[in-house]
Amino acid sequence: MKRLAEICFSISALAILMPFFLLIAVLVRIESPGPAFYRQKRVGKNGVLFTLFKFRSMFNDLGEVGRSVTAKNDPRVTRVGRFLRQTKIDEFPQLLNVLKGDMSLIGPRPELPEFVARYSQEEKEILAVKPGIIGLSQIYYRNETEKIPVNEDATSYYCEKILPEKLKLDLGYVRDKTPLKDVRILLSGFSFLFRDLIKLNYIFESRRRAFFLFHDILVALLSCYCSFLLRFEGQIPDSEVSAFIAMLPFLISLRSFCFVYFGLYQTLWQYLGVAELFSIIKAVTVSSILLPLIPFLFQLSFPPRSILIMDWFMLIVLLGGSRVVFKSITVRLRYAQRQKRKKNVLLIGANDASERLAREFIRRPDFGCYPVGFLDEDPFKQGIRVHGIKVLGRISQLAKVVQLKKVSEIIIAPTELTREKVRDVVAKAKTLNIRVQIIPPATMILAPQFMPLKIREVEISDMFRRELAKIDFGRIRHFFNGKKVLVTGAAGSIGSELSKMLCRSQAQQLILVDQDETALFELERELRKEFLDIDIRYCLSDIANEQGMSKLFSQYLPNVIYHAAAYKHVPLMESNPSEAILNNVLGTKCVANLALRYQAERFVLISTDKAINPRSIMGATKRIAELYIQNFQEASTSFLTVRFGNVFNSQGSVVPLIKRQIEEGGPITITDPNAERYFMELSEAVFLIMEASIAGTNGTIFVLDMGEPIKIVNLVHDVMLLMGVYPSSVPIVYTGLRPGEKLKEEIYFSKDQALPTFNDKIKIWKSGQDNPDRVNGKIEELLCLANKNSPRELIIDKIREIVPEYVPWSPA
To answer: What single DSSP character describes residue 472?
Structure first.
């Protein structure tokens, strides 16, 4: 009898809902191309596997990636999918499973085979009945993703904490022999679903929200009444008055439901934006479409359709207009507080980033900043206003504007500013004794959700800025989503910045490895402030310790490895060649072999321009590491290399040394007046590394475009400018090149070709492949010499056998 009732119900429901199913299928496919339905193997009665049908709620190419349990704010879930999951509409296709006989309407939740394998003998009693669409565990754990802490692994937490509780509920259902238990569960399910949808608790937990809902209901009544007046030219017939009064309860209920459901009260009115206005349009449109259905179902008279159209337009205008008026009043009141602000701010550059910053300053008086104007070089922007703030002129008028507007601080948004313009602004600000800050270039090329807008002091990298690289952060996020990433040398300059960007890329788990205890501790403190919802493991380990690293790989099974750990100080490595080899070569060999053994997806070696025509032990060891990586041509793991030069303000670089020497009163030591080096900004280097590593094929060596080389003498002068020091006040001493140093670094071998890629700032270095057996054999011999701490001469001879272009440094 129960089976017959389920068949009849399923056929009727599917027939009624078929147009609705088609609409949902279209929405699912519009947001993420692919099948509208999601099929997954589940365990049914007596342990028999069956195919469960659901509407697809995830991106088509991400549904099977990463976790088998959906976590809170899981990026794999589409916008349509979030709505389907919240309303449980994604479960409706399971009526097909009921029709096929795989499931019942009421019963325990069907689980995945890997979860059922964990059942105890007692819990396996659940398999004696058919699973159901609605059940006790489905009702009480309908929002299970909200119960999973953001810093926990979703699958592990589900199996250890949630699944046992759900099984207790399902066992209780199976053992319950009371009549009408299914009816009670069905009524409870509808009750909880309705309560979740209307969100009454959310509305009435705040008097402000309840007041705004009451305000919007009055506006809706006023709009409807005015629509009647307009339609009947001020004289509403008695019959239409009756129709108006009859529809009021339905109007209030439907409008209220849609206002709440579409989130009209989740944003403060003073922060009204385009997204909130779209929410108003959606709420009014949906309720206006549904409103005629009610009189049809109850066979009531309904007013002319023209009234609905007028009411739709008028209500959108009234709801949006009231919010705009409220926001305008709030802004005016805050303008009145202008005299209380501590400093006037002048923005250099009228662009998207400065607009966002000005908007934040206006609506957040507690920042203590008031934007008094913009300066911009674009002649078409002169005199225009952004949020009521005027473009006052060009950068050449800086001193005049500062005096006229009583500017206390200057903020640069340098989208199109040349190095000379940035230097000019900094120099004038120093002369006027005004603080100058800057919006970092990386902040301006990335979406706010990837890197939040912030300002900082002007750094030396800003004085040598170049055209910003085009970064496809959507592609980066897509690649790293759901992946486990291991970073060696994570506490170093490149490693720590890479760790931050991987956190913003929504990687599933980060394994950060370094042997510097203090630096790793500081990195942990820094990341915990911003990334509480990312699973990060901090591992103190030596990359050359194969046993310790093997334990890490077997425990975490990383998908991607960034090998940034290396000894990099050139003169120091000249006097410690064995240590350079054991760390840079043996460490690379150890981590690369483990990546292959544990079937990682890809391994990325971070290399250096000093590996080109090396004159130093350090550069030669990095070139040997590159050669070792290139030998994995046929491996299932993709082994890639990314090579670039120096990074501004990295640990142990020349810039911090120059600053320290200036603070100490000099002298500033420079090796040679003609010494040049390639430099790039840290965040740009890291993003280019990530982009290159996504696209590369096995054995590829990528070279980042470093721009033009910078003379160290010019670098010193700009550091002095930033620090407000006159060049004549601090002496400069030329010491001569140190052991292993070149006068000028190189990017490519002259005999090889640099091939273009998808990104103008990334090139592929093309060279002939050496014999793997020859190279590997020589590397083993070199490691034996290093382990024995052999004489320097023997080590250098062996390096030259592996890297013929290596020319050992010798005093002139």
So the answer is: -
